Predict the structure.
Amino acid sequence: MNVEPFPTLVSIFDCTMVSKIMLGDKEAWKCSWCDGCLKPRHATRALYHLTKTPNGGIGICKGVIDPPFAARYKALLDKSQARKSARDKASASVDDYVEKRLAPTCHHDIYDMSGDIS
Ligand SMILES: [Zn+2]
């Protein structure tokens, strides 16, 4: 495999596969791997999308990302997470707790509604 070495990304929005766009009057960005338009234009959430990290507050990328690109995104995410404070980690675990608690309720509601059709 002859893979060209990539320059290290300073910002995720410097990547050629990521474009800054506007959705109405809102700042957003476009992922060229899955052709998705995503907002808000938030660097860490963009990285969660591109590294296919679940529970990042954004949908994960449905595209097939070339390994050299995936490695760059992962490196950038690792760097940004290393900068995070312990307080940020604490609030992230609260989010996880809420998601786990809500998920079964949601399933139950969907099941009940489909059974009510008469
Ligand atoms: Zn994507």
Q: What stands out?
A: The chain has two domains: 9-83, 85-118. Helices lie at 43-50, 67-82, 86-115. Residues 31, 33-34, 36, 49, 61, 63 surround zinc ion (CB under 6 Å).
